[in-house]
Amino acid sequence: MSPRTARRFLGGFRLAVAVLEVVAIVGNFQYVLGFRFFATANFFSYFTIQSAFVAVVVLVIGGIFALSAPRDPAWLGIVRTMATVYVLVSGVVFGLIVSQASTRDYRIEVPWSDTLLHFVVPALALVAWTTDSIIAVNPRVPWSTVGWVLVFPSGWLVYTLIRGQDVGWFPYFFLDETQVGGWGGVILYCLLCLAIFVAITAGLVAVNRRLWARRRRTEPGSRAPRRGTRRRPALPVGEPARRR
Hints:
By secondary structure, this protein is an all-alpha fold.
């Protein structure tokens, strides 16, 4: 399969994942409407929901580029990696919360919309991201992405803490100092979450750069010399021989 054909399939796949993400958001909104103390502002304050909207926008933009251009711009690789990290972290944190609740005799329902939001879509987003790295048509993802990935979660954290103190509601228990033994517990949990962001981003960037380099080495005419061999010096072209 040619890189152009592969990009077209990838573009369609990105758009399909975006549509599935929209279905999951709508389904989850309809599900929580049945809760007695439901508040629309609270629903849209969850990191999972906000990162889902980010993922939809990025997937649509990425799908359009994949269908209409031979390669993505460098900035899109950074943004796509960040969006992938956000939905992955949402899935990891949600899975930890569900597992911890079961060990404490507290049951958390996981409707089909939550399954899509926290498990199915993150898995498909990771597949799309990995496929793009294997094709290696786009520029390599730079290491600076590890720093950029913290911008959105940090802004969301500040907004959530300020709003939580004002309305008395937090989307996650570890942001409420009354549930984790004070602000020291909040800071500890936040640092743990930021470390998860950094670790997952660093892993994705490392995988992308490794796959990109491997693909470049296997392309015709770009194979690197074997270890232990010496390059022959290039002969001058068009230079007349000098006589002594």
